[in-house]
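does this look right to u?? shikimate-3-phosphate version
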Amino acid sequence: MDFRVSPSKIADAKVTVPGDKSVSHRALMLGSIASGRTEVSGFLAGEDCLATLAAMRTLGVGIEQPEPTQMSIDGTGLHGLSAPAADLDLGNSGTAMRLMAGLLCGQSFDSTLTGDASLTGRPMGRVIRPLGDMGALIDSNDGRPPLQVHGGRRLCAIDYDLPVASAQVKSAVLLAGLYADGTTCVTEPAVTRDHTERMLASMGVEVRTDGNRICVRGGQALRGCRVQVPADLSSASFVMLAALLAENADVLITNVGVNPTRTGVIEILQGMGADIRLENPKLLGAEPVADIRIRSSNLQGGAVDPALVSLAIDEFPALFVAAASADGETVFSGIGELRVKESDRIAAMAAGMRELGIRVDESPDGAIVHGGRFTGGTVDSFCDHRVAMSLAVAATIAGDEVVIRDVEPVDTSFPGFTDCMTALGVDIEVLQDVPV
Ligand code: S3P
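got this back:
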């Protein structure tokens, strides 16, 4: 399946985007090991979270989904999960795989975690090592999935200095810490998204945070609660980008999660001259939300502050497109983690934007994007949802039609992306593969 996008005029609009992927995964996992019922609204019914939903059901958790965005989870308590009858297929989702590894290494039974071609190529040593230090036993394919997680192991607390800024690794260690003797602590080299800590706290777990160090005592029970999932800022970024690049657009995105560990994208774009304002801020349970108003802006290049990288880790494909439309050069540094996401996002975005006439100089952990004018052309998504959506938005200001190849993975995080773009006035068409 491909997208064909023609140069478009963005209309003034008020839109919503689907629920937050990170919060949706955590609601499923934490709700499953809580006692009592967890009611979830605003759930992201995208393929990544649906893979986690299926995995939790395979582990014996009763989960009803009366509407695509609503779930009622009958938690089993910390020790109530049951041995799965089959391998747990986590599709494209690194978050599901890494967090589940942490959750499952403290169980009494064995389990196997696997996934699609992209996920089985991604590094898991980053969770296997600290979990191994805690006493877990996880076999892998040379540090990559599938992971065989052995149960019945006694876990001991560790004090772990994360070598990479990763919320997935932090969360995996904290989840294993719930099953460990003693108090497990994780120190991050840079702040990463703190949805796990917030949700644990709202389920009654005492989580101690002191600067970049987060600690949790083992054996604490979770209490089921109501989780209202905010709209996903990472998905909202594509709408923000489309509005910024357009001429004279004024777009409002409602009820978006603006947790300060996620808002790097807003800060970076504002630093480039973007007119982005947060309106109507409030708390939705444990998470701050706001409406985001975006007005078309002339963006300026410059050096992106590497201190903001972990706060905008999923938004760099969109930021590359913003940089291509800015005046001058934009220098990205400290973004080496992008090379081990759903694709090598530095290489994938550089290839796509070069194909559309933009100069990009790559380095192992950075890139310089030279402002220019997108031409028409055909580009590859590298089977990466965020690459596909970023290039689709780039196409709205291209000189001619752009075809983006292999866009199926968009459904992992942003079901309804084409409808949302259409509501903004984007001329986007889905081209189905012709059977051979
Ligand atoms: C996520 C953490 C980030 C992010 C991913 C979701 C999470 O990964 O890229 O999309 O929900 O914890 P890392 O922790 O590997 O940076």
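Residues 22, 95, 166-168, 171, 192-193, 313-314, 337 surround shikimate-3-phosphate (CB under 6 Å). idk if thats expected tbh
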